[in-house]
Write a structure and sequence with these properties.
single chain, alpha/beta, Rossmann fold, 5-stranded parallel beta sheet, 7 helices, about 45% helix
Length: about 140
């Protein structure tokens, strides 16, 4: 089974935009048991902190499926800090977890993960990830 780390922006987009690439990844692949999400204590904390922000309340956040996604995820310990750092140091734990687990990182902010800091980790947009999975058309 393919391992995947989902950046928080993928979780938020999946809850806001039904039918979007992030929603299809969550609903059709993760919740259907065809992908294994990898989390760590820091990532889970980040998910909950972000989805509880006031700006998302109008979308019915937190999404009902989030607790199930987290419970069914592969829980790993927080990885060591990631070096070199990228444009947004708050994103580094996602890349570190991806590297530790051998999982692909799916993010709507690929620019935060330039090739120069990936150290072999695969980072894809939700649309590109769906193409890899055999559906959709590619958007970087």
């Amino acid at each position: 089974m393919r391992l995947v780390v989902l950046d928080t922006n993928v979780i938020v987009s999946a809850g806001i935009k039904p039918g979007s690439a992030p929603a299809r990844i969550v609903m059709d692949w993760v919740l259907d048991g065809r992908l294994q999400v990898v989390t760590s204590p820091w990532v889970v904390g980040e998910y909950w902190e972000v989805v509880r922000r006031e700006q998302f309340l109008r979308y019915g956040f937190p999404p009902q499926w989030l607790e199930f996604l987290i419970e069914e995820s592969l829980h790993l310990p927080d990885p060591s800090p990631w070096h070199p750092s990228g444009p947004d140091s708050k994103d580094a734990p996602f890349l570190a977890l991806s590297h530790l687990a051998g999982a692909w990182l799916v993010t709507g902010n690929r620019k935060h993960f330039p090739e120069s800091i990936r150290e072999g980790a695969t980072v894809l947009s939700p649309a590109a990830f769906l193409v890899h999975l055999g559906e959709g058309t590619s958007k970087p």
